[in-house]
Amino acid sequence: MSRVYNFSAGPATLPEEVLAEARDQLLDYSASGMSILESSHRGAEFKAIHAEAISNLRDLLGVGEDHEILLLQGGATLQFAMVPLNLLAPGAVADYALSGAWAAKAFKEASSVGTVRAAADCSADRPARMPQSAELDLTPGAAYLHITTNETISGAQWHELPTPEAPLIADMSSDILSHPIDANAFDLIFAGAQKNLGPSGVTLVVIRRALMDRVPDSVPPMLRYRTHAEAGSMYNTPPCFGIYLLMLVTRWLKGLGGVDAIAERNRAKATKLYSAIDTTDYFTGSAAIDCRSEMNVTFRLPSEELEAKFVAEAAAAGMKGLKGHRSVGGIRASIYNACPPEAVDALVSFMADFERRNG
Ligand SMILES: *Cc1c(COP(=O)(O)O)cnc(C)c1O
User: Are 106 and 171 within 8 A, CB to CB?
Assistant: First the structure.
């Protein structure tokens, strides 16, 4: 077996220990005589997995009992619609901070449900950046403000979060549990699992309980947060194997020392990679310096031809997934929680070597 360093934006690399554990348990989970893939979601084995996943998340996020933790399906994309379906009543307005491709997609989905307004729009700015809290033009009495804490495609991240009067809703798909945040300050957080939490197919929702009451009757039960909360996230068959892996990933993260410990490791990885970009004119960072993402490091080479060569040679040297998103081009190294520091070390040496040969 030979595993590469995987810099893919998502589905992304998983901790090797987690994959090995899942492999060892695949045919016979915990001496139950069957795989967890074959087990009832109402059985004792899966119930324990589900409960540990939720309690690990509560612990790692540091949210109290005012918030409900839900494990749903449909990805972050379904949340783009569920948020306004549940929280944007007819006649009300929701504000969106347009910071890039993911915020734009959320805005578009929500506009099919109700009235939405751009509180700021820096989607087209280059270098890529996030709106400053001070430039947000907020609607008085807005139903909520939606932000995207990390724009996975452009590589820009909020470092100083806004504190609106309206409920604050955040798409944290690509930076959840990567650094400490005050999760209690958010009214709703959602994240597709496939960047920092596990495989695709599971979606985390952390919602302030008080928000679940105001849902119009026209919303089908399956699309109401309250339905899932009342059913303990088992309204229908949950994505059992994905939740099992998410449980193992959160257990792994707790074992490493939790969010503070991974944040320190993430900071060190990002600092190393950005200094490799900044010490030479050969590479140019794609995001504004004060908005640089610690999860998705985006940069350019002197030409698109050199970028294609860089991606191909890196892959041949055991570093895959470095091609930037097709909409923006360039290079993107996604260095989520599970990306080991050695992967960044290898990339940094490869960059120096590539410049020497092609500079
Ligand atoms: C990946 C991603 C999404 C889309 O998630 P799906 O699970 O594919 O729906 C949404 N927002 C952000 C910030 C992402 O990184």
Answer: yes
